[in-house]
Amino acid sequence: MNTVTITVEGMTCGHCKKAVEGALSKLDGVASAEVDLNEKNVTVQFDSSKVTEEQLKSEIDDQGYDVV
Ligand SMILES: [Cu+2]
């Protein structure tokens, strides 16, 4: 299992937190996704044999947030 913390611009409230966490959690291979609104990041635990960090980032992008 891999863990990555991705900095994301544009997450401002509980709705944003749920949108990003929900979208990432739906991906096959993602064990957990936890947004920290104060730190402007999301920490993801994932299985790198099933999903790549690039796929995580593009999923965040698809939700309308900017990966830094
Ligand atoms: Cu929001």
Mean pLDDT figure: 98
Number of strands: 4
What is the number of independent domains? 1
Enumerate the distinct ligands.
copper (II) ion
What's the architecture in CATH terms? 2-Layer Sandwich
What is the name of the CATH class? Alpha Beta
- What's the helix count? 2
Biggest pleated sheet: 4 strands, antiparallel
Indicate the radius of gyration in whole angstroms: 11 Å
Counting helices, strands and paired strands, the structural category is alpha+beta
Q: Beta-strand percentage?
A: 25-35%
SSE pattern = EHEEHE
Summarize the structure.
The chain has 68 residues and is of the alpha+beta class. It is built from 2 helices and 4 strands; from the N terminus they run βαββαβ. It has a 4-stranded antiparallel beta sheet, with helices on one face.
Describe this structure in words.
The structure is a single chain. This protein is of the alpha+beta class. The chain has one domain (2-67): Alpha-Beta Plaits, CATH 3.30.70.100. Helices cover 34% and strands 34% of the residues. It has helices at residues 14-26, 53-62, and strands spanning 2-9, 30-36, 41-46, 66-67. Strands 2-3-1-4 form a four-stranded antiparallel β-sheet, with helices on one face. The longest helix is centred in the N-terminal third of the chain and has 13 residues, at 14-26. The mean pLDDT is 98. It binds copper (II) ion (CU). Copper (II) ion is lined by residues 12-13, 15-16. Residues 12-13, 15-16 line the site of copper (II) ion.
